[in-house]
Design goal:
Chain lengths: 196, 168
């Protein structure tokens, strides 16, 4: 018996309208030539459809991410055409793969170099929890050194799962209040990681 | 002239007598032992003697035998004669309370990092090594992880839920 396939067994027929991406408009009041909406929603709309991911790929999950970046799965559909390799330019840190304890300070440094607002996605079992590497040399989840917004399970996760995690990030980004990063709660979160 | 295990054993016995002992032939590869104070003498002879010519250090590692009192740690040198394509293993044993072993890094440059690795994981103190510090693990580590001193898994840990790993 063949292995059950869980993804793309009923692909949607191609439709020309799908080729044109239209981000859904935020709630608001509009008329001839004007539109009013909450600033945070407009900012969220702009942010979530132009995320610049920073891939921090250390092992096999990184290979899956390369597949996700490729033309078949095409992460660029979500407005993140530009994968940056400088933390100072990026909004989204994608940690893919096993992070050894020795790598922990490096990862933290990369996170600190990113400008606010910044988000973090832990892709795969190792980045999320240490995975099978339940051992002295491996960090048991990157949330021990930096705060994480979305965890993608899998060993490694399929590109669909990475895209799903990415869309969860987009959801978070779109709904985030523009004041969140100045709030007490956020400061307390960062202080919990020893970040000023 | 090809060198075989009998020839190596005979040459070493002629030179060192009882000092080199415990000759074993495992799957065609000769291994033998010497007191740890004599490791450099034996290595130097294996290196210099033209009929032996073990001038390549393939590997250097340690083994922990926690039940063997006074001989808990074995330092194993894997040597290779590249001309004759012959390999041997040379072991010295040391007590875990005093892990001083003379460094081979002056003789074999390859031993430099291998001894650091052996120190890192087993805590063998290579006397005379110029830079004996951790090489692979984090510097803050205050134990030697590959010694057989630790329980296989801490049953009280809470960061991994047994249910998720089918052990619930």
């Amino acid at each position: 018996m063949s292995r059950p396939v869980r993804f793309n067994i009923h692909p949607i027929e191609a439709n020309i309208a799908d080729a044109i991406g239209n981000a859904p408009s935020p709630e608001g009041f509009g008329g001839d030539g004007f539109f009013t909406a909450r600033l945070s929603e407009v900012v969220g709309l702009a942010r979530k459809n132009s995320l610049w991911p920073l891939p921090f790929a250390t092992s096999c999950c990184g290979i899956e991410f390369m597949g996700t970046m490729g033309s078949h799965y095409d992460l660029a559909r979500f407005g993140s055409e530009r994968v940056g390799f400088s933390p100072r330019q990026c909004d989204l840190l994608m940690v893919m793969g096993t992070i050894a304890k020795k790598m922990g300070p490096v990862l933290r440094q990369v996170y600190l170099q990113m400008a606010e607002p910044r988000w973090v996605i832990a892709v795969g079992a190792c980045a999320s929890s240490g995975g099978i590497f339940d051992t002295y040399s491996v960090l048991q989840g990157i949330d021990q050194v930096i705060p994480v917004d979305v965890y993608v399970p899998g060993c490694p996760p399929r590109p669909e799962a990475i895209l799903d995690g990415f869309m969860k990030i987009q959801e978070l980004v779109g709904q985030e209040s523009i004041r969140r990063r100045n709030g007490e709660q956020y400061k307390a979160l960062l202080n919990g990681y020893g970040i000023e | 002239m090809a060198i075989d295990n009998q020839f190596i054993q005979k040459t070493l016995t002629e030179k060192f007598g009882e000092m080199v002992f415990n000759y074993q032939d495992s799957y065609g590869m000769l291994s033998f032992e010497a007191p740890k104070e004599q490791n450099l003498k034996v290595l130097q002879y294996l290196y210099d003697e033209p009929t032996l010519g073990f001038q390549f250090l393939t590997d250097l590692c340690a083994v922990n035998y926690p039940d063997d009192k006074g001989r808990e740690l074995a330092v194993v040198y894997h040597l290779h004669n590249l001309q004759e394509n012959t390999r041997i293993r040379f072991k010295v044993f040391t007590a875990i309370e005093n892990t001083d072993v003379f460094t081979a890094s002056k003789l074999y440059a390859a031993a430099d990092w291998m001894e650091r690795e052996t120190f890192d994981f087993y805590g063998v103190n290579f006397v005379g090594h110029h830079n004996l510090k951790r090489i692979l693990n984090v510097d803050e580590m205050d134990y030697f992880p590959l010694r057989k001193e630790y329980p296989l898994e801490d049953q009280t840990r809470i960061d991994k839920d047994d249910e998720m790993f089918g052990r619930g």
